[in-house]
Amino acid sequence: MIEPANAATSGGSQRRMRAALLRYLPLLLLALAWEVGARSGLVSTLALPPLSTVAAAWVDLLKDGELVSNGAASLWRTGAGLALAIAVGAALGIFMAWWRPVNVLLSPLVEIFYPMPKSALIPVTVLWLGFGNGSKILLIFLGCMLPVTIGAFNGARSSEQALVWSARSMGANRLRMLWDVVVPSAMPELLNGIRTALALSFILLVSSELIAAREGLGYLIGFLGASGTYDAMFAVVLTVALLGFIADRIYLVLMQRMLRWRE
Amino acid sequence: MVQAQIVIAGVSHCYRPPSGRPVLALEDVTLDVRGREFVALLGPSGCGKSTLLYLIGGFLPTETGKILIEGKPIAAPGPDRGIVFQHFALFPWKTVRGNVLYGLERMGLPREERQQRAQSFIDLVGLSGFEDSYPSQLSGGMRQRTALARTLAFDPKILLMDEPFGALDAQTRGLMQSELLSIWQRTPKTVIFVTHDVQEAVYLADRVAVMSARPGRIKAIVDTKFDKSDPAIFRNKGFTDKVDEIWNLVRIEAIKAQTGRTS
Amino acid sequence: MPGGPLAELAREPSAYRWLRTAGWGFARVFSLVALAVAWELAARSGAFTPYMLPALSAVLQRIWSDLIAGDLLLNTGETLYRAFTGFLIGAVAGIALGMGISRNRFTHWFFDPIISVGFPMPKIAFLPVVMLWLGVYDMSKITMIAVEAIFPVVTATIVGIRGVERELLWSARNMGATERELLWQIALPAALPQIITGLQVALPIALIVAIVTEMFMGGYGLGGAMNTASRFADSRGVFAGIVEIAVIGYALVKGVMLVRRRLLLWHQEALAPSTV
């Protein structure tokens, strides 16, 4: 049986860099295989443009501003929608954990709407707010709220009874207790819920921009695909995918920093 | 002179965790075990007694020194050395009968015989009527009996027991100890029994090998063979003297293990 | 969300437990009814146009007529067919890949970055690429679904197999099990709870992706129908779609939970001990 991959033992940053390189080497090999395979004539260069052509197209898109303007639109939508989802979702989750009647009323609804594929909301947001920013922000807000709520709820409920009681005995009023005890212990679960929401926001963004938009990275992909400039299309597809990955990684670093500080 | 069934000579073992410094668990351990003898390995926590057991069982590779079973070095785990773990290690998705049958299936016996054999061992450990129960339905004592039945069923020459009653409550433990003794007297095997409980060791074993604190070494070997059929044996003077003698040997090591823990 | 860890639930006397479950069932119905009433009242109040918020009654009527016309069943069937096919492919491939990665050093090295980098990516962005390669019919939809579904299954399988207690494996080796037998007879069953959790995550994902691909490509299926409704500004159709999809999503998740309970009977028995 294979043992789990070992973390680097002793030996400083050079060793760690080598380990990282070795770890991601398969991706490099895939990239190489792509380039070679595309140029070999085995597949039509229309269906699989060589990686170098895609890279060149990416640079072009950057230069003529298409990538930046559409990217900005997409990121703005995601950011706004996510911020709203986090603010409202976390507040909702904590209130549900804190006041029983709210929990009894809303828990069933959360349970019922959580399994609903949020992409079903795309047409209705378009119906209400059209093809622009508003519908995307609303979609991401509604779609990403529940994971945050559930994370906040579970996290708040796990705050140790002992902590709550001792805070209460020290005379902290309810609101103070909320801030000093419940919120910090809810952090790990809440932060995990936000991580899920982050990934979901990208999915909803891309989906809605592919289907109904006038600008944005998803729209750009569709546009380039329809006009047959596949190398540029690949370039934007990879950009979006990488953005999702980078966002998750940055969030992980932030999350670890936040949790360490709380400790 | 009859050669001992198990010969352990100059065995050392280094434990290498994935992160941190390697730790010397055992140092130059030498022990001879005769056939059908009941030997207890006694020592404070962390002294390496379980490690020694795993080496004999072939679950860890012997790097320094040698371990011979009937004159031949061990290569891998095998049905000649049956092991019983502290936390039972039962297959949770199999019933009691299923667990006991597992070892028998590998013996190449015809179906009828397998079933009969499994049943007889289930009866032997007193679990008649629970053949179709799952481990999660059983109490700790019953689970350990299942583990015992499972190991005895494939008739190993040597029985390796790793603090098998450590996870049980005191009353069940006492019951299991006398049951083990009566089973052993009926179907004599070589037993190597790891424990940190001095009374248990003196009660069950013919000889007690006292181990030092880490790195583990055989500090002393005390003869504890006497008539165990007396129901009031725990109050018998000969018995309690033996317990005191051994406890004195262990106490120093236990203290060393405790203080050594800070390093 | 019912409160308290499962263990606590088991220690309560069964009458009390029944009351709790009944209480929650009642709360669920009550909240739903409250929501429905609120919807209906809000729609009739005149604060919203019938375009923006069609009345619940109108939407339900629409669902009913779709059902009679056979459209609902046709579309639902299409969507579920694609979702399940993609899910099954992803599940089988995911478990196989997970087992291979756990067993083989090279496979582990090769796929580890692909999985860890691919997981947080919005893989739906690759839909136009998949369409380019595989056309506009079911094949591309199912492929996209399978690609998305595979990730949680592989991850869960790897975690599950890695988490198998060493003593279980040692006991089996003690009894003479070969490497192959260890993998199939011990590691896989021991990892099953974790694997099923992965499958439970993958199935809703399969449904989401099915709907999105249908919305993008049009045609039959619940997503396609909603897209058409949206194009024709048919707000009742859009809301009907939301309700239908919500119901299916809920039923799916509940169904999977039931299946899990049956498969992991031996696990659940921990709640009903029969000790001596």
Summarize the model shown:
Chain B has 263 residues and is of the alpha/beta class.
Q: Which descriptors apply to this entry?
A:
heterotrimer, B: 263 residues, alpha/beta, Rossmann fold, 6-stranded mixed β-sheet, 4-stranded antiparallel β-sheet, 7 helices, 10 strands, C: 276 residues, mainly alpha, MetI-like fold, 2 domains, 12 helices, 0% strand, flat, disordered N terminus, disordered C terminus
Question: What does it look like?
Answer:
The complex is a heterotrimer of chains A (263), B (263) and C (276). Helices cover 80% and strands 0% of the residues of chain A. Chain A has 263 residues and is mainly alpha-helical. Chain A has a single domain (54-262), classed as Orthogonal Bundle (MetI-like fold), CATH 1.10.3720.10. The longest helix of chain A is centred in the C-terminal third of the chain and has 38 residues, at 174-211. Chain B has a domain at 6-80 and 156-260: P-loop containing nucleotide triphosphate hydrolases (Rossmann fold). Chain B is 36% helix and 23% strand. Chain B has 263 residues and is α/β, with parallel strands linked by helices. Chain B is built from seven helices and ten strands. Chain C has helices spanning 6-11, 14-44, 56-69, 71-103, 105-118, 127-134, 138-162, 166-174, 179-217, 222-231, 235-263, 265-268. In chain C, helix 10 (222-231) packs antiparallel against helix 11 (235-263). Chain C is flat. The interface between A and C is large, with 63 and 68 residues.
Largest sheet of chain A: none
* Percent of residues in helices of chain C: over 70%
- Helices and strands of chain C, in N-to-C order? HHHHHHHHHHHH
Question: Mean of residue pLDDT of chain C?
Answer: 86
**Class based on secondary structure composition and strand pairing of chain C:** mainly alpha
N-to-C span of chain A: 36 Å
Q: Please state the second-level CATH architecture of the largest domain in chain C.
A: Orthogonal Bundle
- Please give the domain count of chain C: 2
Overall geometry of chain A: globular
Order of helices and strands of chain A: HHHHHHHHHH
Number of alpha- plus pi-helical segments of chain C: 12
How many β strands of chain A by DSSP? 0
> What Rg of chain A is obtained from the alpha carbons, in whole angstroms?
23 Å
